[in-house]
Amino acid sequence: MAEKNLSEKLSQIGIIKCPYMTEKMTRNIESSNTLPFIVKKTANKEEIKKAVEQIFDVKIKKINTIISTKGEKKAIVKLKEEYNAFDIASNMGMI
Known about the structure:
Blueprint (H helix, E strand, L loop, with lengths): L1 H12 L2 E4 L3 H10 L1 E6 L5 H12 L3 E8 L5 E7 L5 H8 L3
Antiparallel strand pairs: 1-2, 2-4, 3-4
C-alpha cells in the first residue's frame, strides 16, 4: 500500500515543475493563502489539483492558470482556510 502511494506521488510530481516566486507571489502567499507553481503546459486544473493535494497533503479551494509570454503555464493554487500556504512555502524553502 505504501508503495502505491509513493508511486502515485511520484507520477504527480511531473505535473508540478517548480515553485514560481516573485515579490508579488510572496505577498500573496501571506495575504491570499496561495501557492504559485510552474506546471506542465498540457496539465489541466483537475490534474494540477490532484497533484498538489497528493504531494502536499492539502485541500484546494481554487486554481487559476495563466500562460506567460515566455510560454510557461503558471498555476496559482488557493488553499482551503484550514491549511496555511506560508507554512508549506517555508517547508519547501520558497520563503
